[in-house]
Amino acid sequence: MPKEKLLGKNPDELKAAALAAGLPAFAGKQLAQWLYVRRVRSFDEMTNISKAGRAKLAELYELGVSAPLGSISSSDGTKKYLFGVCGSSRVESVMIPDGERRTLCVSSQAGCKMGCRFCMTGRQGWHGNLDVAEILNQYISIDESLELTNTVFMGMGEPLDNYDVVMKAIEVLTAPWGFAWSPKRITLSTIGVMPALRRYLDDCRCHLAVSLHNPFPEERVEMMPVQKAFDEKAVVDLIKQYDFTGQRRVSFEYTMFDGWNDDKRHADALIRMLRGLECRVNLIRFHKIPDFPYECSPQGRMEAFRDRLNSNGITCTIRASRGEDILAACGMLAGK
After folding, report:
1. Which of 92, 158, 232, 253 is catalytic?
2. Is 92 an annotated catalytic residue?
3. Hey, what domains does the chain have and what are their CATH numbers?
4. Residue 316 annotated among the catalytic residues of the structure
5. Which of 105, 112, 204, 330 is the catalytic position?
């Protein structure tokens, strides 16, 4: 039977683990320091815990940290890591450098249930939820662990479909006893899974990104079957009930497909849908995948779409594409 993992536990849970190993209660705080501040990769590195205590911890528990199975670097500096999770499954995470920023795009599931036709992850189906240690391990075991400045839950899987585990990971990332990151450094991306979306908006101060891609429900459902279960209008109406004029931000991800969602009709419908909401729209270049009929919209049409939104009071930008040459860009992660 697998051992219980320490990575992901809060101080009270680590205190209980310390006591179970015959250590004093204050060793729980020491464990939190080693796990989340020092980000050690073995019990042997916990030098202020006795050798006998470390041996007992190792007998009872697994640290929860494991090295990536491999990595590959892009010509633009982006780096993709492969991890073993959920028994025999594989996930990828992507480290994206940008000046002094180091952003980790992290996975929360092996595969995905949402089935978006243009996403390589969605095509492979769902193979399991990551546990909190498997999520946090993506931060701890990469070469750039101590350099990371930001994170986006935009890797493999739908974060709100693994809500409780993702929220526990965010707790570790933001707690004073954990990574001590500001919530402003974290963005969660979703297609709009409800009621988990409402829970997230109520419980969390991190940023939100919503995968929209088409303002017409009858067209969106062609590419995103989840439209039947989670209507985009209901998602946007829910978001409009919350305040995004302060430090928390909401953005909408809009992948551009030539001839499908990129004309004036779509831009105007998107303007109507988002009017009155303090938000940003990120236009994303579609990256060609096998056996899929659409191409990315031409640059000129993307710019016209962007300009139309901006001129109507909706902040819109074209997101720079990163890591396409190593299949690390949006929609290309497949756990390989």
Report:
1. 92
2. yes
3. 4-62 (1.10.150.530), 70-326 (3.20.20.70)
4. no
5. 330
